[in-house]
Write a structure and sequence with these properties.
- The protein has 353 residues and is mostly helical.
- It has a two-stranded antiparallel ribbon.
- Helix 6 runs antiparallel to helix 8 and helix 6 runs parallel beside helix 10.
- It is globular.
- It starts with a helix and ends with a helix.
């Protein structure tokens, strides 16, 4: 009976804290608030937003007691930190659960959640970038109207953006798969088996400690993986930078498309009204399209340079990250290596000497 009670509680905590099913919706709700400086954010306001997200999604039908124990607890922050950097969910453990979920244990859970939160954040950013890219896909009839120089630059820049998105998405999706299934699911299954054979309640804290140590180490949060951990978070930052540049690119394309359409309308108007002063040489209508084309080319080239810089830094860091996996002591990290480099693309780029 004791094992069943603890097991159900552990399972609920994992589902509601570590694998919150409405996490994408939560990010949509709290994202604007978390983009503000950490020292200006109200925990009470975040708690209200969290409650709104829960009421709007399936978790509202879960055990009310579990949901009531979820809290918003801002972590210690430094100058320049944003809300995204210090926002975790907390779980209030009371008697008898606090015999297992001690303050020290909950601190480790918060570290785990903070890591998963950042992983879900970059996934959310990539999904948002993809939505922007799909909604602003340049129509063929618009491309055909552009000058060759603008069309070529637009196609090249858009393609670089899409290829870089694909590389980043491949990395994030496979990393997330590894964490959720190779780490959490496998460790949880072993923990359930340990609870089944537990002779008394004293065996539960020991089994839970093994479980918690396992997910911490395999998720690159252990002391032996600090170099990998730091590299991983730099990769996350690069992905977030890429999202902002992708938004700029497709917002610029949309604006250019709108202005080109307006310019075409003005040109048609000038043909209908040849005596209109705005249609004479030197006016905005006659010179505006040329200036607009020049600005568009300059804008696209700047974005392309920024994407090239992000792409080079990202590739270098990712190759360094992957090259460190084979020398890690935890054998489970080889599953991550296999998923990220299953075609041996990175291995062939840097063969062993």
């Amino acid at each position: 009976m004791g094992s069943m009670i603890y097991g159900n509680t552990f399972n609920s905590i994992l589902e509601d804290i570590l694998k919150l099913t409405c996490i994408q919706y939560v990010m949509d709700i709290v994202g604007p608030e978390l983009s503000e400086p950490a020292n200006t954010i109200s925990s009470f306001k975040l708690a209200g937003l969290l409650e709104s997200a829960i009421r709007s999604f399936n978790p509202q039908y879960d055990d009310r007691d579990i949901l009531d124990r979820l809290r918003v607890k801002m972590m210690a922050h430094n100058t320049g930190d944003r809300g995204w950097d210090v926002f975790p969910f907390d779980y209030e453990a009371t008697v008898p659960l606090n015999t297992v979920f001690t303050e020290s244990v909950m601190g480790r859970y918060l570290r785990m959640f903070n890591f998963l939160w950042k992983l879900r954040r970059v996934e959310h950013a990539l999904i948002g970038a993809w939505k922007t890219m799909k909604l602003n896909s340049v129509a063929s009839h618009f491309l055909n109207k552009l000058q060759n120089a603008v069309r070529l630059q637009l196609v090249m820049t858009s393609r670089k953006c899409q290829v870089l998105w694909d590389d980043m998405n491949h990395f994030v999706m496979n990393l997330q798969y590894y964490i959720m299934f190779e780490v959490l699911e496998v460790s949880w299954s072993k923990f359930l088996n340990e609870m089944e054979v537990a002779k008394d309640l004293d065996d539960l804290p020991a089994a839970h400690e093994i479980y918690l140590h396992s997910i911490i180490e395999k998720s690159l949060l252990g002391e032996r993986s600090q170099t990998l951990y730091k590299t991983l978070f730099v990769l996350f930052d690069l992905i977030l930078r890429f999202r902002s540049h992708a938004d700029r690119l497709y917002e610029g394309i949309h604006e250019f498309q709108a202005k080109t359409t307006d310019s075409s309308r003005d040109k048609s108007k000038s043909r209908l009204h040849p005596n209109d002063k705005t249609s004479k040489p030197g006016s905005w209508v006659s010179e505006g399209r040329k200036a607009l084309t020049q600005r568009a080319i300059a804008f696209l080239r700047n974005i392309e340079q920024d994407l090239d810089a992000i792409g080079k830094e990202y590739s270098s860091l990712l190759e360094g990250f992957i090259s460190q996996l084979p020398v890690q002591k935890d054998i489970d990290l080889k599953f991550l290596l296999f998923r990220l480099d299953f075609t041996e693309f990175y291995s062939r780029m840097h063969p062993k000497t």
